[in-house]
């Protein structure tokens, strides 16, 4: 698999491929944070825009952007299947999410990830995201880390 063979398209939150990937993401997070009670991070706004990454017709990853009331946007539900990791798919999804956010006029993109997700933290740091104070609803979550990036 090469990222040149990868397609990234828009999808809705009720698309069965997205629903399956989000279920897989939730299972991955449950294994990393076994004592978490579910938190508050899964709330999705109706205005959320999902991206679906597919290779050879198979869903291999997803992410979404969700607008903030202050004009920024939040990156949500970033996930790449274990078999597809290490191939630059997450970076391609992130680049596309940033491109769409910029096109929609959002000046900044924010995100929350967990301290037990070093690969995610490395991706975001390499992509120019900087750590910020945890924003609601994550402000009292000790296992959460929030990041932001200004978009041009």
Key features of this structure:
Aminopeptidase, 7-stranded mixed β-sheet, single chain, alpha+beta
- State which percent range the strand residues make up: 25-35%
H and E string: EHEEEHEHEE
Give the termini separation. 31 Å
Cross-sheet strand order for the largest sheet = 1-2-3-4-5-7-6
Low-confidence stretches: none
Shape: globular
CATH architecture: 3-Layer(aba) Sandwich
Q: How much helicity do the residues have?
A: 25-40%
Mean pLDDT: 92
Task: Write a compact overview of the structure shown.
The protein contains 3 helices and 7 strands; from the N terminus they run E-H-E-E-E-H-E-H-E-E. By secondary structure, it is α+β, with helices and mostly antiparallel strands.
How would you describe this structure to a colleague?
It is built from three helices and seven strands; from the N terminus they run E-H-E-E-E-H-E-H-E-E. The chain is of the alpha+beta class. It has one domain (3-150): 3-Layer(aba) Sandwich (Aminopeptidase), CATH 3.40.630.30. The protein starts with 5 loop residues before the first strand and ends with a strand.
SSE arrangement:
Layout: E1 6-11, H1 16-32, E2 49-55, E3 58-67, E4 73-80, H2 89-103, E5 108-114, H3 118-126, E6 130-132, E7 144-150
Parallel strand pairs: 4-5
Antiparallel strand pairs: 1-2, 2-3, 3-4, 5-7, 6-7
């Amino acid at each position: 698999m090469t990222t040149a063979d990868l397609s990234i398209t828009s999808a809705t939150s009720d698309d069965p491929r997205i629903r399956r990937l989000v279920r897989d993401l939730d299972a991955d997070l449950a294994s990393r944070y076994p004592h978490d009670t579910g938190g508050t991070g899964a709330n999705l706004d109706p205005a959320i825009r999902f991206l679906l990454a597919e290779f050879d017709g198979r869903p291999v990853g997803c992410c979404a952007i969700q607008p903030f009331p202050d004009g920024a946007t939040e990156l949500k539900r970033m996930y790449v299947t274990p078999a597809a990791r290490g191939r630059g798919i997450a970076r391609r999804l992130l680049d596309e999410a940033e491109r769409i956010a910029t096109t929609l006029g959002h000046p900044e993109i924010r995100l929350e990830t967990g301290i037990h997700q070093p690969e995610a933290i490395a991706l975001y740091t390499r992509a120019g995201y900087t750590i910020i104070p945890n924003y609601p609803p994550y402000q009292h979550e000790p296992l959460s880390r929030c990041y932001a990036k200004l978009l041009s």
